[in-house]
Amino acid sequence: MSDPMFDYDSNLEACARHDERAFQALYRQESAQMLSLAISLLGQRDAAEDCLHDAFVQIWRNAGRFQRSLGSGRAWIYSILRYRALNQLRQRGRTVALADDIAEHLIDDSPSAAQQHEQQSDRRQLRGCLQKLERPRRHPVLLAFYRGLTHEQIAERLTTPLGTIKGRIRSGLRALQECLQR
Q: Global pTM?
């Protein structure tokens, strides 16, 4: 069970100083949840385990790049995992098998019963914040983060200028960050 008082930021900063205990604590805290997410993204346990391993190698190597001022440590490690999983999917020549409409409905799905209380609360909060975003900002954010599409692909798919898509994603993420900090 994860510790709701775990200090991700301090542990990442300690990892940057090559503190193996901090790295082990981070691994114990999040590896089970990260593996679960990787399995859901990749659909295969062995691929998910490889992804998790690669993500933690990157976390260890790049912990010095983490900056508290840019976001939470937990979000930072999950972004590394997500990036690794999307890379694996691209290398396999696959894209995430979600229709645009399904991506829009992800904000309505209830969390899995297996998820811990903290994750359920975080997901509910994120879902609530996503629901508050108007569709022109929400849809590009969902396509980028749930489908792994590039800004260019989103602009093409939505037949919207690239600069507009970038602006909508940027303002949507800013609005989500403000909402999540409340």
A: 0.54
